[in-house]
Amino acid sequence: MNITQPLAERMRPRSLAQYVGQGHLVGEGQILTELIASDKIPSMILWGPPGTGKTTLARIIAKETSAHFVQLSAIGAGVADIRTAIESAQSYARLGTRTILFIDEVHRFNKAQQDAFLPSVEDGTITFIGATTENPSFEVNNALLSRSRTFVLEALLPEDLEKIAYSALDDSENGLGDQDIKIDDDALSYLTKMVNGDARGVLNALEIASSLLNEGKKRKNAITQEIIETALQKSNLFYDRAGDEHYNIISAFHKSMRGGDADASLYWLGRMLDGGEDPLYIARRIVRFASEDIGLANSFALPQATAAYDVCRFIGMPECGVNLAQAAVYMAKSKKSIAVYGAYNAVMDDVRKHGNLPVPLHLRNAPTKLMKEVGYGKGYKYTPTESDEENMEQIFLPDELLGTSYLGE
Questions:
Q1: Residue 170's pLDDT band (boundaries 50, 70, 90)?
Q2: Which of 25, 140, 166, 262 could disulfide-link to 332, CB 3.0 to 4.6 Å?
């Protein structure tokens, strides 16, 4: 056992039989199991939350298929590193050995870096496996995406995390088995809930908890919930301000307000604020919601939303959290109307469809004599001084759009 390695690294599964979770991919008869068994590994992208076994699975695939394995991290690697890996792959290919090039956090590679290994994927010099926590549809080049199969990994279930925890506590060679440590049921249940399906989070917490047991005058051998709470320091709710979960949660927040569920709106708001989201970002979304989803159904919604934005700008977090909560509940409980939103979208469609339609002459301003001579402003009826009948006869839209009613009135 290499005690200098973190527990999470020491406990990393070395074979498919040891791998925990992702039964929809590596269970009996499932797609990746069959591909590994037949030694027909395509280039692929493993997409899933942190700690769900993406790197481990890539290593196991290489080992099970006797492939040369090269691992790069998109955080620190560049085009030169990719070229070196390709040259190595070419050397192994001459010996009849396949090379799997694994790129962790591939979404961090720019287009030039992704393009650097694309020809080698196409000619079979390397089998590419990329790992990402972000939606590959947005973060991976279409050319690379079209040449790879995407497999979605899911957050590990509590029972999976419990199995990993017990394995670490029992394993004397790589884990904590030689320390004879036990864990309370309540502590384990709490731990598996708070790490959000992240196996690495479980192992890191156990490693810290084991060191906490050795502190003080008398050594303890039972991990309690209190010790787990200390090890975690914070609930550590998964929320990535720049990633998929950011968009997932703001979507849930918006749709909860739209659906009139004030409780759900508050929950998703709390998730964002606890995860460190910029309160002004949330406030801007509420301002947008006030017109998009409420509109004319409640003319006070927009002032309520802009007031919340101003408060966030003036006092910031944590004080403004309750102001955002008030605004979110107000939006959720308000009547809804998308008449203005729909009308605006219809207008923009016509603007793009018809281009720059000329303003009718009678609506044009005529500050100069020449403009008056060519007809600018001629025939315009000043609405406040005209009768209702005359005002109804006046035309305000371009000829091509006469009769159009965006609000359906």
A1: very high
A2: 262
- Asked if residue 128 lies in contact with residue 148, where contact means CB atoms within 8 angstroms, the answer is yes
Report how far residue 288's alpha carbon sits from residue 214's, in angstroms, rounded to the nearest whole number.
53
Q: What is the pLDDT of residues 25-40, one digit of tens each?
A: 998 999 999 999 999 9
Delineate the domains of the chain, giving CATH numbers in brackets: 22-152 (3.40.50.300), 158-232 (1.10.8.60), 244-333 (1.20.272.10), 355-401 (no CATH)
SS3 of residue 242 by DSSP: coil
| 196 close to 237: Cβ distance less than 8 angstroms | yes
Which structure tokens are listed for 95?
């010996």
Residue ranges with strand state E in 156-283? 182-183, 222-223
How far apart CA 213 and CA 217 sit, in angstroms, is: 10
pTM (two decimals):
0.68
Smallest Cα–Cα separation from 312: which of 340, 289, 282, 285? 282
Total Cβ atoms within 10 A of residue 290: 25
Whether the Cβ atoms of residue 20 and residue 26 lie closer than 8 Å to each other: no
